[in-house]
């Protein structure tokens, strides 16, 4: 494959940095430039310099700055992974301020990157990182093994709404361009450095005790002091999709390779059935499992097993979420528990990976068990603080 000029937006982020690594591994012959709002850390800067990766500090909300950067680089490939993910209670928030921030970055930012790509005239392939939440953020509906024929536009949460709007910009015939484009929809991404999924799961664990403290733990002696990990909502059989971060990154490399091969072979003519051009593809680990099982596996890797399991019936959980929303509306204070959080905890959301296998040749290299082990093994910050006690 000839040398390409590859721009990766958001290349300093959790997924973006994994995408950079995946490209460097698969195609060291290309030249890479990261566009990110943040400057690299000293460690990242040294690594970037070692790998001869360029870095331009750009806020994708600023059209002029994005165009200037893209014109200087003249890329042949753009992987647009920059975006913002609302975390914690913000995910279910109805705040107009949060909605504006999410749409400014995820929608208007995508519009700006597309405009720069069209204007520069050198781009042959454009891959946009969307999310399975374009479907999954419809909290009132279960989605079982859905494929790409599913209609989007029903998301109730700002993140899924913003990703669906950005998808339409990338793939709509009303957005004319001279390059081939596709969209990838990874499911919930986890891995080393994960900022969204694993930290709140680990935070439910009780503080650990010193290894030499042999006294019974209070958390197993008194029901009212049971750890939060003991509480489970509903039957805990609803399946979820997860994607290990390097698997998601691999999918981006395969998508770019597919688009470049189609562009070079067909000269921008009508894409073949095995072309990713004009398509949105779900990316998963092809191993859906109950969210509770994912939590149990993560806790076990961190040395914690809930002493008991207290099942909160689904009806009771929904009432609790409704009450939390009512109190939030009256006080202006948002809680971790909400009607949206409960709906998501009780819902079933997983997609078929068949199209990604057939079109991209994608298969997850890291399975769920190994992915969870890697994700928690290198992150001591997940481990709860040790309680210092007197052993006498």
Automatic annotation (TrEMBL):
Pfam entry (one):
3Beta_HSD
User: SUPFAM superfamilies, alphabetically?
Assistant: NAD(P)-binding Rossmann-fold domains
Q: Tell me the superkingdom of the source.
A: Eukaryota
| InterPro entries in the record | 3Beta_OHSteriod_DH/Estase, Lipid_A_modif_metabolic_enz, NAD(P)-bd_dom_sf
User: Domain 3-beta hydroxysteroid dehydrogenase/isomerase, which positions?
Assistant: 7-202, 233-311
- Which key words tag this protein in UniProt? Oxidoreductase
PANTHER family annotated for this entry? BIFUNCTIONAL POLYMYXIN RESISTANCE PROTEIN ARNA, SHORT CHAIN DEHYDROGENASE_REDUCTASE FAMILY 42E, MEMBER 2
Into which family does the record put it?
Belongs to the 3-beta-HSD family.
The name of this protein is 3-beta hydroxysteroid dehydrogenase/isomerase domain-containing protein
Protein's organism: Phyllosticta capitalensis
Species lineage: Eukaryota, Fungi, Dikarya, Ascomycota, Pezizomycotina
């Amino acid at each position: 494959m000839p040398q390409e000029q590859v721009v990766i937006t958001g290349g300093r982020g959790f997924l973006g940095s994994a995408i950079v690594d995946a490209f460097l591994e698969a195609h060291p012959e290309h030249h890479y430039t990261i566009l990110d709002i943040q400057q690299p850390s000293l460690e990242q800067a040294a690594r970037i310099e070692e790998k001869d990766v360029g870095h331009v500090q750009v806020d994708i909300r600023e059209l002029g700055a994005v165009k200037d950067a893209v014109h200087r680089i003249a890329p042949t490939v753009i992987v647009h992974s920059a975006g913002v993910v609302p975390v914690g209670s913000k995910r279910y928030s109805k705040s107009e301020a949060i909605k504006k921030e999410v749409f400014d970055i995820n929608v208007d930012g995508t519009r700006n990157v597309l405009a720069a790509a069209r204007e520069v005239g050198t781009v042959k392939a454009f891959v946009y990182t969307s999310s399975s939440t374009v479907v999954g953020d419809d909290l009132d509906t279960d989605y079982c093994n859905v494929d790409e024929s599913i209609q989007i536009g029903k998301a109730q949460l700002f993140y899924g709404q913003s990703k669906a709007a950005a998808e339409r910009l990338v793939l709509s015939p009303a957005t004319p361009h001279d390059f081939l484009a596709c969209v990838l929809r990874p499911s919930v991404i986890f891995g080393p450095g994960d900022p969204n999924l694993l930290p709140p799961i680990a935070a439910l664990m009780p503080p650990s005790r010193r290894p030499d403290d042999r006294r019974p733990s209070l958390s197993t002696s008194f029901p009212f002091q049971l750890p939060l990990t003991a509480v489970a909502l509903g039957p805990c059989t609803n399946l979820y999709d997860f994607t290990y971060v390097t698997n998601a990154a691999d999918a981006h490399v395969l998508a770019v390779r597919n688009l470049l091969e189609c562009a070079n072979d067909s000269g921008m003519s009508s894409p073949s059935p095995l072309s990713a051009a004009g398509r949105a593809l779900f990316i998963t680990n092809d191993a859906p499992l109950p969210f509770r099982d994912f939590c149990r596996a993560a806790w076990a890797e961190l040395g914690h097993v809930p002493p008991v399991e207290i099942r909160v019936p689904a009806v009771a959980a929904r009432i609790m979420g409704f009450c939390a929303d009512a109190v939030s509306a009256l006080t202006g204070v948002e809680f971790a528990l909400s009607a949206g959080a409960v709906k998501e905890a009780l819902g079933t959301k997983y997609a078929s990976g068949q199209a990604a296998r057939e079109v991209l040749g994608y298969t997850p290299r890291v399975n769920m068990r190994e992915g969870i082990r890697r994700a928690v093994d290198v992150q001591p910050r997940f481990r709860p603080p040790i309680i210092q006690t007197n052993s006498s």
